[in-house]
């Protein structure tokens, strides 16, 4: 069987390479309705689309690709089609962005967001340093220490080292350039900082025509300031905190101690690089790579399930020394030059040295499928169908009354699930009522006729906002200030994908709106004038490899995200939109971001005792993080205290979908998580909806026990149904020892040619 599967994969590869990159298939006729009892699954997954529908990503960075067999939308892909509106609550970006950058959409959830909000003086974490621009032509550098308890882990900011223009400046800093992996910060008219993520050095260069008087200071006392070479291009700075920093200069620099906490260096022109020295054994490595520094960095998504990093560098030449976090190390290509003994500590786990001007990261592929990978068991079909008929009948009796974009999105996605389950269990007569319900509820949001809310486009930052969010930062959970966009739009896109699949004529009519919603958070175009109406990958962090949800809000702890499963749903739903429209590029992009988001969730949100990423008091007391911040791990949720463990489990699982298998592939961890959660269900007032999510995960390893408990539930989450829970439980297979993927990973039909 394995040889036959491999041979089939090679056949798929030949089919793929024998066609042009975007050779799409013709529209296929609608398949006949499935039988009442679906046949048992074949020994390997049969592709739901021909393999040529998933080519490698094109090398261009267009915002949206060609649309396959459907007609092109009336508006350019990636552009906005919703009405323009002007928000009264969005901040003014011109205060911090250089004028040339204002002509293009701007990032609203990026790793340097604090630098462009309010006074711009809150720190951001660049791994391994936290950086702050406090004003006065200064840049603060901190190698953060951590405080921890059973409830939280937090990095604390202290200005360990400050580099500044001794003359000072009344001007605030400006962002003069940014990209996927770096930001260029003009600290003053004379000093520029190249802040590159994962760089063990912080680089500041002078930009004045002549020499600049430099000040180097600290909140700690300097107890040793020593030149390490005769030329004065390397200095050792030892402090009473026990820390040692190394300072490298591209030209001779003379440091003199003006006070116990301040050094002066008159008349310097060139580049200064400072690096914290965690261990004396690392000094020769820092010396060797100190002359070459990165000034920018790109992350390319040219191939499915791959991210390729490349940095542009300056300085004396040679190779770059960068740092990789634990997920990087898991995905790095085998030929990467990893320095295992060169390590910096981090809240995200040890950061390990990697030498090279480019990296290749490769993830295992994940298939975005409409239905379960195993199929509903024959003995469970009747129970699922009975619940399905009741839930479909209930659609007519329970109209959606909310105007919240989030809760409305959950309601329509909940209904869309019923149609796909009806397909899977062979109940075609249940589909038309769902289609009618979806048309009546989704269309008003797309054609602007919905009363009480709606989507609009604001050009100030370049993105979708809601009617309620135009005047209220708290409306729609902050959607109007670009908070949670992937959560809200992900639910809408799921419903749109299903409706476009079932009614292609409706899908063609509203394709422009669907693609505008996708483009709001999944545009690949670089932020350049005229390239797109939306910023590049609004929510997704191409260095951390997961999304953030914070929007245009200043946070002392940096960006944050609570629900990884809703983030997965967003990219998975976008991939389903691609399947509905025959759009190979969108399927590939959505599947790639889905896979990366799931891996990041397993790395940082799913907590395993003894794994070593988090301190043992926190790791021993938690199995999932509540809210993950750039500088903090919190056991509490935005809406619940740490003791409500069922909410923590549920918010990392909902909505329950076929892709949920990819998010929880480790059966042993799932059992540990459920065991940790179950005692919380005895608390008074636990919601029935949250119990349902606990039972859903229990069903991965004990289906019968989970079914018995699920049948006794008296209510469900507003994005879930009894039908959906029964579908999930009856499509769970037997757990096989050593099968960490639970069968899901092997079902990716284009695994053979993804890399």
UniProtKB/TrEMBL annotation:
GO molecular function, one term: glucan endo-1,3-beta-D-glucosidase activity
Catalytic activity line of the entry: Hydrolysis of (1->3)-beta-D-glucosidic linkages in (1->3)-beta-D-glucans
Compositionally biased spans, kind Pro residues: 28-58
Record keywords: Carbohydrate metabolism, Cell wall biogenesis/degradation, Glycosidase, Hydrolase, Polysaccharide degradation
Ranges of residues in domain Glycosyl hydrolase family 81 N-terminal: 104-369
EC number(s) given by UniProt: 3.2.1.39
Membership in a protein family: Belongs to the glycosyl hydrolase 81 family.
Name the record gives this protein: glucan endo-1,3-beta-D-glucosidase
């Amino acid at each position: 069987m394995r040889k036959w599967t491999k041979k089939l994969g090679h056949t798929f590869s030949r089919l793929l390479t024998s066609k042009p990159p975007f050779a799409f298939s013709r529209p296929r006729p609608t398949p006949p309705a499935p039988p009442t009892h679906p046949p048992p699954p074949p020994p390997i997954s049969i592709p739901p689309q021909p393999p040529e529908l998933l080519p490698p990503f094109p090398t261009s960075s267009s915002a949206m690709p060609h649309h396959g067999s459907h007609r092109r939308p009336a508006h350019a892909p990636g552009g906005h089609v919703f009405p323009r509106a002007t928000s009264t609550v969005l901040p003014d970006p011109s205060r911090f962005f250089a004028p040339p950058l204002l002509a293009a959409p701007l990032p609203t959830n990026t790793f340097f967001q604090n630098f462009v909000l309010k006074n711009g003086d809150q720190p951001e974490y660049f791994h391994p340093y936290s950086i702050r621009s406090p004003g006065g032509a200064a840049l603060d550098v901190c190698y953060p220490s951590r405080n921890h308890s059973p409830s939280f882990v937090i990095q604390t900011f202290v200005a360990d080292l400050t580099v500044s223009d001794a003359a000072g400046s009344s001007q605030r800093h400006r962002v003069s350039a940014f990209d996927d992996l770096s930001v260029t910060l003009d600290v003053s008219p004379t000093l520029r900082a190249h802040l590159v993520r994962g760089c063990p050095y912080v680089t500041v260069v002078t930009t004045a025509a002549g020499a600049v008087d430099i000040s180097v200071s600290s909140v700690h006392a300097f107890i040793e300031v020593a030149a390490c070479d005769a030329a004065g291009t390397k200095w050792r700075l030892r402090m009473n905190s026990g820390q040692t920093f190394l300072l490298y200069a591209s030209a001779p620099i003379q440091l003199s101690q003006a006070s116990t906490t301040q050094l002066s260096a008159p008349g310097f022109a060139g580049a200064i690089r400072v690096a914290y020295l965690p261990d004396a054994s690392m000094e020769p490595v820092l010396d060797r790579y100190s002359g070459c520094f990165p000034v920018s960095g790109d992350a390319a998504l040219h191939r499915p399930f791959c991210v390729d990093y490349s940095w542009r560098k300056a300085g004396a030449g040679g190779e770059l020394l960068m740092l990789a976090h634990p997920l990087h190390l898991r995905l790095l290509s085998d030929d990467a030059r990893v320095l295992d003994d060169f390590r910096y500590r981090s809240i995200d786990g040890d950061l390990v040295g990697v030498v090279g001007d480019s990296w290749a990261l490769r993830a295992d592929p994940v298939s975005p499928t409409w239905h379960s990978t195993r199929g509903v068991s024959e003995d469970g079909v009747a129970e699922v169908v009975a619940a399905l008929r009741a839930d479909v009948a209930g659609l007519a009796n329970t109209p959606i009354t909310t105007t919240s974009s989030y809760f409305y999105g959950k309601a329509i996605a909940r209904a869309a699930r019923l149609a796909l389950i009806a397909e899977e269990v062979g109940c075609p007569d249940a589909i038309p009522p769902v289609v009618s319900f979806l048309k009546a509820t989704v269309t008003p949001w797309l054609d602007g006729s919905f009363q009480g809310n709606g989507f609009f486009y604001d050009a100030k930052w370049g993105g979708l906002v809601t009617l309620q969010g135009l005047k209220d930062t708290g409306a729609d959970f902050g959607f109007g200030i670009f908070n949670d966009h992937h959560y809200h739009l992900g639910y809408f896109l799921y419903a749109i994908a299903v409706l476009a699949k079932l009614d292609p004529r409706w899908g063609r009519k509203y394709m422009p709106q669907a693609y505008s919603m996708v483009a709001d958070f999944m545009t690949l175009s670089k932020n350049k004038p005229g390239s797109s109406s939306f910023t590049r990958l609004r929510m997704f962090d191409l260095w951390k490899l997961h999304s953030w949800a914070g929007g245009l809000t200043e946070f002392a702890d940096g960006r944050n995200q609570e629900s990884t499963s809703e983030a997965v749903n967003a990219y998975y739903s976008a991939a389903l939109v691609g399947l509905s429209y025959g759009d190979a590029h969108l399927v590939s992009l959505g599947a790639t971001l889905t896979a990366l988001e799931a891996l990041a969730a397993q790395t940082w949100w799913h907590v395993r005792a003894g794994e070593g990423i988090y301190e043992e008091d926190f790791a021993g007391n938690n199995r999932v993080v509540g809210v993950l911040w750039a500088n903090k791990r919190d056991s509490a949720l935005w809406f619940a205290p740490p003791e409500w463990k069922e909410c923590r489990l549920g918010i990392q699982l909902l909505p329950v979908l076929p892709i949920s298998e990819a998010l929880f592939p480790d059966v042993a961890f799932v059992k540990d998580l459920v065991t940790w959660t179950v005692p919380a269900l005895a608390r008074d007032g636990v919601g029935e909806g949250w119990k349902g999510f606990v039972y859903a995960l229990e069903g991965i390893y004990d289906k019968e026990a989970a079914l018995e408990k699920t049948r006794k539930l008296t209510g469900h989450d507003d994005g879930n149904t009894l039908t959906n829970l029964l579908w999930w439980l009856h499509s769970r297979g037997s757990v096989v020892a050593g099968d960490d993927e639970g069968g899901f990973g092997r079902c990716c039909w284009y695994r053979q040619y993804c890399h």
